[in-house]
Amino acid sequence: MEKQFMTFSIDDGMYGVNILGIKEINYSQRFTSVPLSAEHLVGLLNLRGQIVTVLDMSVPLGYKQREIHDESSLLIMKTTMELSHVARKHGIQTHKDTVGFIVDRIGDVISCEEKEIEPVPAHMDAEVSKYLEGVVKRDDALVGIVAVPELLKFAGV
């Protein structure tokens, strides 16, 4: 079965999220900070009347907290309710509330067969690898496929 992933960059790493779980890509940087929150919680965003919890995806993936810059983008994920019609068929899990992940740069959509997704390399840090479902080889780069449910557990949302 073919799968498609929206790729993005964090520092020098390339990652992907199943495109079926993405509601939209947003470039807003007008977040309301949450006092005394964890370092991975960037803040809250009012998106057309809907409150979105904005998370820094880089922290659980082993990077330092990112500075938001002009190319920073926000991946707004679909909620469980929005995914109910495809979740079972494609094995996608998300959250009951709307969340967004801040990333450095948005890349391309890549397609691959399920059999092309390889296990996370054994030498990768165990604390980081639990947030990845696997890797896909593309040209001379590896794309880490993000395990969104694990990332949401880390974030505590």
CATH architecture name: Beta Barrel
Summed over residues and divided by their number, the pLDDT gives a mean of 85
Helix coverage percent of residues?
10-25%
Overall tally of domains: 1
User: What's the CATH C level?
Assistant: Mainly Beta
Report strand %: 35-45%
Number of strands: 10
Q: How are strands sequenced across the largest beta sheet?
A: 8-1-2-10-9
Number of helices: 3
Catalogue the unreliable spans: none
* Anisotropy-based shape: globular
- Topology-level CATH name: OB fold (Dihydrolipoamide Acetyltransferase, E2P)
State the separation between the terminal residues, measured CA to CA: 31 Å
Report the order of strands and helices: EEEEEEHEEHEEH
CATH superfamily: CheA-289, Domain 4
Compute the CA-based radius of gyration: 15 Å
Protein name: Purine-binding chemotaxis protein CheW
Organism: Acanthopleuribacter pedis
Domain CheW-like: 2-157
InterPro entries: CheW, CheW-like_dom_sf, CheW-lke_dom
Structure description:
InterPro entries: CheW, CheW-like_dom_sf, CheW-lke_dom. It comes from Acanthopleuribacter pedis. This is Purine-binding chemotaxis protein CheW. Residues 2-157 form the CheW-like domain. With 157 residues, the chain is mostly beta strands. It has a single domain, classed as Beta Barrel (OB fold (Dihydrolipoamide Acetyltransferase, E2P)), CATH 2.40.50. The chain is built from three helices and ten strands, in the order ββββββαββαββα. The strands form two sheets. It has a five-stranded mixed beta sheet. Strands 3-6-7-5-4 form a five-stranded mixed beta sheet, with no helix packed on it. The longest helix has 11 residues, at 80-90. It starts with a strand and ends with a helix.
